[in-house]
Amino acid sequence: MNFRCKPFGRTILLSSLRPNAPYRDAELDGGKIVLYEGHDLRSDFSSSDPKRENQPMSFPGGSLTQNGLFYQAAHDYKEGRAPAEIVRLYEKLKPGIWEFNGLFDLVDAWTESDGTRIVFKFKLVFKEEQVGSSQLLELQHSRMIPASVKLEVWKRDDGKCQKCGSTVNLHFDHIIPYSMGGTSLTAQNIQLLCAKHNLEKRARLDG
Ligand SMILES: [Zn+2]
């Protein structure tokens, strides 16, 4: 979690929906809404297992942790004191590989019990879906590929371009293009292509 981190003042969250991920993040509505779990007590502030301790709002000295900063921003928005904080969300596909998932508004935050302790939850809403009046249509037909679909494609395609086997500069390509009605919601319509083959395909379709 990085609230308005320097040097660009951007707010960034890293998420992972992998089965063994350390935090329980969840996607709803095909990835349009993300429930993001807060971070644990740092191990240097904890005498026991951080996974058994309540997630912290503030440091022992009183200043806000990242949980506290995000929580305060969400409530400033809810209570009309500030516009929604814009969050850049990245999804972990595998160790060292993060995929930009888009811009989200931070619209709510709360704490809840996970059964053994108190955790923070942050509600993020995909930004592009909030403009325009045809929201329902947009939900069914969106360029955005949900993280769960990306993970399925990544595994199926073995992290390689499907034309040449390259493992660098990979993109998620709509097999039937989005502009021609191709869906983002099933792995059957998404494949991995390297930048070169992705551009080649677009040039063919546009030209
Ligand atoms: Zn390629």
What can be said about this structure in brief?
The chain is an alpha+beta fold and 207 residues long. It has four helices and nine strands; from the N terminus they run ββββαβββααββα. The strands form two sheets. The protein has a seven-stranded mixed beta sheet.
Please specify the SSE layout and strand pairing.
Layout: E1 2-5, E2 10-15, E3 26-28, E4 33-37, H1 66-78, E5 85-94, E6 97-113, E7 118-126, H2 135-140, H3 147-156, E8 170-174, E9 190-194, H4 195-206
Zinc ion binds near residues 164 and 197.
How would you describe this structure in keywords?
207 residues; alpha+beta; PUA domain-like; 2 domains; seven-stranded mixed β-sheet; two-stranded antiparallel ribbon; 4 helices; binds zinc ion
Shape: elongated
Radius of gyration: 19 Å
Overall CATH class of the largest domain: Mainly Beta
Oligomer: single chain
Helix content: 10-25%
Query: SS-based structural class?
Result: alpha+beta
Total number of beta strands: 9
Strand residues, percent: 25-35%
Account of the protein in words:
The protein is α+β, with helices and mostly antiparallel strands and 207 residues long. It folds into two domains: 2-139, PUA domain-like (Roll), CATH 2.30.280; 145-206, no CATH class. Helices cover 20% and strands 31% of the residues. The chain is built from four helices and nine strands, in the order ββββαβββααββα. It has helices at residues 66-78, 135-140, 147-156, 195-206, and strands at 2-5, 10-15, 26-28, 33-37, 85-94, 97-113, 118-126, 170-174, 190-194. The strands form two sheets. The chain has a seven-stranded mixed sheet. The N and C termini lie far apart (43 Å). Residues 129-139 have low confidence and may be disordered. Residues 161, 163-164, 166, 193-194, 196-197 line the site of zinc ion (ZN).
